[in-house]
Amino acid sequence: MGTRIESDKVLTAQAFTGTYGVNYGRIADNLPPPGSVVTLLKAAKIKNIRIYDADHEVLTAFKGSGIEIVIGLGNEFLTDISVAEERAMDWIKENVQPFLPGTSIRGIAVGNEILGGTNMELWEVLLPAVKNVYNALDRLDLAKVVQVSSPHSEAVFANSFPPSSCTFRDDVLPFMKPLLQFFSQIGSPFYINAYPFLAYKSDPEHIDINYALFQPNEGIDDAKTKLHYDNMFEAQVDAAFAALEKVGFEKTEVIVSETGWASKGDEDEAGASVKNAMTYNKNLRKRLLKKKGTPYRPKMVAKAYIFALFNENLKPGPTSERNFGLFKADGSIAFDIGFTGLVPSSATSSLLSFKDKHSQELMGIADNLPPPGSVVTLLKAAKIKNIRIYDANPDVLTAFKGSGIEIMVCLPNELLIEVSVGEQRAMDWIKENVQPYLPGTSIRGISIGNEILGVTPIEIWEALLPASKNIYTALDRLGLTKVVQVSSPHSEAVFANSFPPSSCTFRDDILPFMKPLLQFFSQIGSPFYINAYPFLAYKSDPEHIDINYALFKSNKGIYDAKTKLHYDNMFDAQVDAAYAALEKVGFGKMEVIVSETGWASKGDDNEAGATVANARAYNKNLRKRLLKKKGTPYKPKKPVKAYIFALFNENLKFGPTSERNFGLFKADGSIAYDIGFTGLVPSSATSSLISFKVWDSKSLGSF
């Protein structure tokens, strides 16, 4: 059966309508479910993705999202599909047609990096497979919607330097030319996987890394075209254009189907670092968003899919193969590339979530929360005088002007490396996010990252102290250090052990970073912030932990033989464990403040203790305990202070159900459960914006 091609199909099937997409690889056993990935992509404003198969769970999750997807027909299916059009039809009917139009499948990549590879049999079946897939789509009237293509590696080229000299390999040409002819007829582009990282690591002595990273450099000149290139990415794209032109396809569009930079590698993998990955991907994103062409094709807008969305822990090969992700497996940003709409949330140290920048960071990761001004009203009614937010959102800071509520803002984890490099970057951040709001908005602290040590990549550990120093120095130069405190909250992952409290020590691998950080914070008078969650401890071992001990209820408690102190609740024990660890490294006088603690009101079946009754009991008893302004068994003269996590339930958070149910208040502003805010009752003045009135004058106190 011949291939049916009509002129109107050439212009209608467009798989990539933007300029910036991401490859969603899933060779891992620790990734978030596809539904959570949709949330992340929407928050990051990523509208185009590629997957390497046609996984039904993924395609179902993306239904109605508006995100455009190129699916993959795996290399292992090519021989079978090439035999007959009906086999292609069966595949389309199973993996494409049922999901349209709800899921925006816009393309099918037939194989990946076939030509130039080692399996010559696949070279021979690629074109027949492509034709059969196209014909099946055409018979189903889907060729106008779903584009057919096939990505290539740079192994198809005989040479690519300078760009104008690029040609296809002689052995590849007999297969490439008829493939290009067919793609030209149906209006498909030439997809190339282009990796400046791979070029650099193969010859770091002769390639300027700045040329590979879009950083200032001398660049290269192409004598034939008299064009100058200041980055390798554009040179690689123009090399593909040159090769196409030499075989008569100069009008074919080139799209980069994969490009990226590894954040970690083996010792012989030059350039694989968090800093370089951040630089490459951030600069590439900026370049693509400009929607401009290349030196050789200035009017043809460059487009690229970044590799990859996540780090993939099961990929074979060198370490770099498992570390191309923009995001870590838990959904947290691996490094900042300009996704300013994404901020980490820290209900736990192991699972971070994200939200759109237009939502309100103060209140959480959700799309159904009241505006910041209404939250100010709520906080005032509840007599809550201190809050933490996880960035420095201008809408929030503006809303809190004149409220008298003291705020700790956050320099997000993904900015630490950048701010650690120089004081000027810290100064710029302060001038943009802190200084303009003072003194009207009571910004009293800056959290430098959240849960860095023991959790994030070691390069961010290394950046924490210099970033803290640069922020403090910038504040000092502006005369703000007497007003704004600098600190950094830690998770309990920094401890080697914490039971009994007196035995608590810092982990050996963390000490080289923790001690100088503590020394600096001691010098500037900052406390030690710890995120302490009895809930997490209990749900990890409900058989051996008395829930009453975790909830401040009557129980036998525990006895610390070394200090001869008795503990009747886990919260106090966790605080004193931190004091013990500090004392062992010479900082026994440093104050400990709990930067996060809370209890989930709902959880999955395997999340022991996550109930409304337990959340009410924990938070109500904790509030009573804090209002007494008393110390712990080990530090009885130091009143305990704590920030409760969280103000609202957050419907868009990743992870188990508990992650979305830590709120004291529901999304509409009503009390989730009574913990002593008896002075708050919903006003019926409006149904869409709940306000509050005060029946009593109890206060949570201030820091």
Automatic annotation (TrEMBL):
<keyword id="KW-0378">Hydrolase</keyword>
<dbReference type="InterPro" id="IPR000490">
    <property type="entry name" value="Glyco_hydro_17"/>
</dbReference>
<dbReference type="InterPro" id="IPR044965">
    <property type="entry name" value="Glyco_hydro_17_plant"/>
</dbReference>
<dbReference type="Pfam" id="PF00332">
    <property type="entry name" value="Glyco_hydro_17"/>
</dbReference>
<dbReference type="InterPro" id="IPR017853">
    <property type="entry name" value="GH"/>
</dbReference>
<keyword id="KW-0326">Glycosidase</keyword>
<protein>
    <recommendedName>
        <fullName>glucan endo-1,3-beta-D-glucosidase</fullName>
        <ecNumber>3.2.1.39</ecNumber>
    </recommendedName>
</protein>
<dbReference type="GO" id="GO:0042973">
    <property type="term" value="F:glucan endo-1,3-beta-D-glucosidase activity"/>
</dbReference>
<keyword id="KW-0732">Signal</keyword>
<dbReference type="GO" id="GO:0005975">
    <property type="term" value="P:carbohydrate metabolic process"/>
</dbReference>
<comment type="similarity">
    <text>Belongs to the glycosyl hydrolase 17 family.</text>
</comment>
